[in-house]
Amino acid sequence: MARTRSETVETDDGVRLWAQRSGEGPPLVLCHGGPGLWDMFEDVAGSLTDRAAVHRWDQRGCGRSGPCAGPWTSERFVADLEALRRHFGLERMTLLGHSWGAQLALSYALAHPERVNALVYVSGTGIGPDSDWFDGYTANLVARLGERPERLARWRELTDRPVRSEAAERERAVLQWSAEFVDRERDLEQAGRMAERWFDINTECNKAFNAERRRTWGTPELYAACQQLDLPVVVVDGALDIRPRSAVDSLERALPRVRRVILPAAGHLPWAEDPRGFREAVTAALR
Q1: Which residues contact 138 (CB under 8 A, 6 or more apart)?
Q2: pLDDT tens digits along 1-47
Q3: What is the number of other CB atoms lying within 10 angstroms of the CB of residue 25?
Q4: Half-sphere exposure of 242 toward its Cβ, with a 13 Å CA cutoff?
Q5: Could you tell me which of 81, 100, 99 has the C-alpha nearest to residue 90?
Q6: Residue 272 exposure: Cα atoms within 13 Å on the Cβ side
Q7: Could you give the C-alpha distances from 287 to 44, 105, 112, in angstroms and in order?
Q8: CB hemisphere CA count around 229 (13 angstroms)
């Protein structure tokens, strides 16, 4: 049985990060989505511990990591990921990032390509401006929730509240996350699993990174940097993600060594809806 060990990683500015290592093999580091959420990769780790030493972590100020006041910048989070790499003694690693975590993993690879064997970019939104995807995402979110009119009405009611209790925040999140799944009979159940381990959403972190992305993504400088990234990259998409997949074309065009895997029956969390296809894509990157 693969051994699992939880540890505390201390950053150079004294913030304590929760981290966990499980399995044996080449090192694989997972970067969770958000921003402002926490690691939800238990199933992913469990499916890969026979292929890799899987490292999970909660980003600063989120989940099981210690409280802090930021800073909420990509530069700081890249430094936190570097602290985790040093803590576990990883000379090089395969990085897997999901959603916002795909942006973080890409940022780390651009800053430290010599430390990365390969990048697995899952359900990201590319390197273009928000106009490539955000309006489409919003429309698709409302349309999918609207398939259950009472669900859409409740989500809107909770969203419009200026202040929400923890229970209301969790309910709103589960309703919104249900739109990420393709199976409309089990979507609420699958979203509920994401919230079984619940922590406060770091809204300050979320707002800061969304503002940073609007300033720095979609620039010629970012495109040029990706053109110079001499690493194998596997882009994994669920074809039915409510974020328009065409947004990722900008990244695919820029990267010199890229392979794209599209899982036709999956949404934003492809490991939940096509576990076999997802595992095959990741294990290929590990090789």
Answers
A1: none
A2: 457 889 999 999 999 999 999 999 999 999 999 999 999 999 999 99
A3: 15
A4: 18
A5: 81
A6: 24
A7: 17, 19, 20
A8: 31
Q: How far apart are CA 231 and CA 224, in angstroms?
A: 15
Q: Is the peptide bond before 26 cis (omega within 30 degrees of 0)?
A: no
Using an 8 Å Cβ cutoff, are 132 and 125 in contact?
Answer: yes
Query: What ranges in 59-120 are assigned the alpha helix state H?
Result: 74-87, 100-111
- The angle formed by the CA atoms of residues 37, 38 and 43, to the nearest 5 degrees, is 130
Query: In DSSP terms, which residues pair with 98 in a beta bridge?
Result: 122
Over residues 200-241, the pLDDT tens digits come to 999 999 999 999 999 999 999 999 999 999 999 999 999 999
Kindly report the backbone phi and psi dihedral angles of residue 227, in degrees, each rounded to the nearest multiple of 5, phi listed first.
Answer: -65, -25
CA angle 117, 120, 121 (to 5 degrees): 135
Query: Cα–Cα distance between 227 and 221 in angstroms, integer?
Result: 10
Cα 209 off chain centre by: 13
Instruction: For residue 219, give both structure tokens.
Output: 């620039």
Please provide the size of the chain in residues.
287
- How far is it, in rounded angstroms, from Cα 108 to Cα 112? 6
Exposed (0-12), middle (13-18) or buried (19+): which is 134, by Cβ within 10 Å? Answer: middle
Can you give the pTM of this predicted structure?
0.96
User: Would the CA dihedral through 228, 229, 232, 233 be positive or negative?
Assistant: negative
Q: Rounded to whole angstroms, how far apart are CA atoms 221 and 92?
A: 26
Model confidence band, residue 287 (pLDDT cutoffs 50, 70, 90): confident
* Tokens at 202, concatenated: 């770091």
What are the structural domains, with CATH classification, of the chain?
4-132+202-286 (3.40.50.1820), 135-194 (no CATH)
